[in-house]
Structure formats: C-alpha cells, structure tokens
Amino acid sequence: MLSLLSPFCIVGSRMSEQPDRSISDNEIAAFRESGVICLKGAFGAHWIDTLAAGIERNLREPGPMAHDYTDSFDKFSSKGRFFGDYCNWQRIPEYRDFILNSPAAEIAAAVMESAVVQIYHEHVLVKEPETAEPTPWHHDLPYYNVDGMKTLSIWLTLDPVEVDVCPRFVAGSHRWGKLFYPRLFKNSDNYDYAGDGYEPVPDIDAAPDDYKLLFWELQPGDALLFNFLTLHNGPPNPTINRRRGFSSRWLGDDVTFAKRPGTTSPPYPGIDLKHGDRMRTDWFPVVWPLT
Ligand SMILES: O=C(O)CCC(=O)C(=O)O
Hints:
It contains 5 helices and 14 strands. With 291 residues, it is of the alpha+beta class. The chain has a single domain (29-288), classed as q2cbj1_9rhob like domain (Jelly Rolls). Strands 1, 2, 3, 4, 7, 10, 12 and 14 form an 8-stranded antiparallel β-sheet that branches. The structure holds 2-oxoglutaric acid. 2-oxoglutaric acid is lined by residues 123, 125, 135, 140, 153, 155, 167, 232, 234, 245, 247.
C-alpha cells in the first residue's frame, strides 16, 4: 500500500505508443448503449509478454492485498487456484510500463469519450486450469470510492478463453440507475454497508433469459471494456488453459470522490477527500493526454 500512497504526478516517460488497432464510432456507440464491448486484438504480443512477466512476478511477490479465493470455496473442491491482487502497478515494473506506455489510456479516452484519463488501479485475476470457483455477479462502482459515468475497466486476457469461461455482462445494466451491494469474491456475501441506496444483486443465473447477456470467445490480446456500473461475473475455468485476466481501471473527466457507508475495496486509507471532490492526481496520475 505504501507505494500507492507515494506522491506521483507526472507521467513523463510515456512513449507515444500507437493503439494496436483503431476504435470505430460504432464501437464507441455500442459501449454507450451496452456498457461493454469486446475489442479483438486490442493489445499486441509485446504487451502480452510484458504483462505475463509481471503476473509471474506478482505471483512470486504478492502484495498486501493479494487474495487466494480458492481457499474459501472448499465447497467447490477446486484443483486449480483463483488468485487476485490489486494496486501493485507502481511496484511491479511490467505493470507500470503497461499503465504508462501501452495504448490503454488512449483507448480509455476514446471509449469513455473523456478529454482526461486518470489511472485508478489495476486488478489481476488469475484462474488456473481446473478452477471451480465462479466470480459472483456484481458491478464495480459500489466497491470503489468514486462516482461518475465515465469509468472503464479494460480486462485484457493473456490466454485463449473459451466462450463458457469468458466473463459475462448484462447489457445496458450501467443505465439501470441502481447500486448493488458489493459482494465478497470469497463467498459471495454482501459487504457490510450500513446505508441506504444499495440492493442485493439479482439472481441472474436463475433467470438468464430475462437479461441480454454478452460474452465472447477470446484470444490473447483481446480486451473486454466495461463501465464500472455494468453487471458482470466470471465463470469457473474447468479447461486446461490458464485464464490470466489483467483489469486496468480508468477514470474519466466526470469522476469524483464518493464516500461509501463502509470500507471500500481498494480501501485507500488517508485519501483525505470530501464527497464530490475531484480525485487527486498525485495518487491517480493523469495518463492521457500525453504531457
Ligand atoms: O476475472 C474475473 O473473473 C472477473 C473480472 C472482474 O470482476 C473485473 O475485472 O471487474
């Protein structure tokens, strides 16, 4: 956590890396409408190799907020492992390189239709082969200490992902005007939020035909782009492939600090902001536009 708190404002070393593919007006319109799109071939081999090295480093040297979700799900008797960690991009050089120098921030600016993009954090979610644990249905905004519509996670896969293993999204759920309780990944329980305005996530698996669910077969370098309000899950990984997902989280120019009725995830102790303040740029540097 300490490295996250260290003052850091200027992104001076950023190369002007061109996106590995362009983003069309139709894709931007689809994101606005559905709250999720899949960008095939968004990141090339260089960034896949860079992040693969970073994830191995992260697995060898987990951070203070790392989780082994498999331990808690003994009801699934998993052979595989579900590992998660976040807020390590300033400590792991390969993550830092990706955040500052890859096309991710420029992609985020285009898709969020935002003039300015700040990095919020990164979240690594590795499901090893034969991991039986699902990631529960949730949306990300209530976990976080931010409000705003211009928000984006870029979930980049380093592995082939079969269609049944791909995270699933409820199209349009970012526009429902609802906030659902955050849920613990280890047992799907709701967070202990003591406040009004949150409701339990609906049981989407019980009535999947009631929703428009979007999911894809993925290849390494493909990315799922979704709003922090879009409901999504992560199926188990019964396959022989690893499923290494690298989610970078980005803030656009309408985002402000939100006080939640409980501890957020990430927690950001000592952030010293009032509800409605702009997010501080020393903790969450501006990565786009280039300076
Ligand atoms: O990787 C997963 O299983 C879920 C991903 C997710 O929830 C996220 O990136 O917000």
